[in-house]
Amino acid sequence: MTATPTRNCRFCLVRHGETDWNTERRLQGQLDIGLNAAGLAQARAVRNGLAGQRFVAVYSSTLARAWVTAEIATAGSGLAVSPAPTLRERHYGVYQGLTSAEAAERHPQVHRRHQRRDIDFDYENGESLSDFATRVMTGLTEIAERHAGEAVLGFTHGGVLDIVYRVAIGRGLEGPRDFPIPNAGLNWLDYEGGAWRILHWADQRHLATSLDEFAV
Question: In whole angstroms, how large is the CA radius of gyration of the chain?
């Protein structure tokens, strides 16, 4: 009997390069913050790290920090970056643009609900965690089913990757994050039969070996 060929979709999901707000631990959300010098170097390191990998398509969040990372990382690949709004970061309402300390001072009630990871709270006209998770996973599943049997590269944000990791290992949304999501890390997953499986998470080897040559 001939074995049925696998129809899994393989994903490499990449968090955008570093921004100044990352270093300040300032919540970006859907505010459009650009890469800093380190972030631009990280994007070039991603290009080196993915050399030799073959993808049929590239998708990116439309926020500049992800989109520019995608353009730099895929330069010379022959693949155009396609916009994927579902890969955008969560909208944090009144919390956006603030550090944790600033949020606690200006919006103490919002901060308390943030600390509890209240999945139904929308940060006053932002996006609830439950709605965000639905948006992210619906979008990724649509991409996966469009590319069954193929490999896809995606550029996104820490909040999106938080959701993906939890769904893949069967963890709820409520608990604190205890896993890494580094800037410009490579996260490999398979999607098949409605299920997600992590192959390798938060790979930073390309950063350790590549960033020195971009130092100035």
Answer: 17
Instruction: Go through the domains of the chain in sequence order and give each one's CATH number.
Output: 9-92+128-214 (3.40.50.1240)
pLDDT in tens, 75-129: 999 999 999 999 999 999 999 999 999 999 999 999 999 999 999 999 999 999 9
Catalytic residue among 16, 111, 114, 157: 16
C-beta atoms surrounding 197 within 10 Å: 12
**Encoding tokens for residue 163?**
């959701």
Instruction: Give catalytic status of residue 89 as yes or no.
Output: yes
Q: Please confirm, yes or no, whether 114 is among the known catalytic residues.
A: no
Instruction: Determine the Cα–Cα distance for residues 10 and 109; give it in Å rounded to an integer.
Output: 41
Q: pLDDT tens digits, residue range 177-207?
A: 999 999 999 999 999 999 999 999 999 999 9
Catalytic hit among 18, 89, 107, 147 = 89
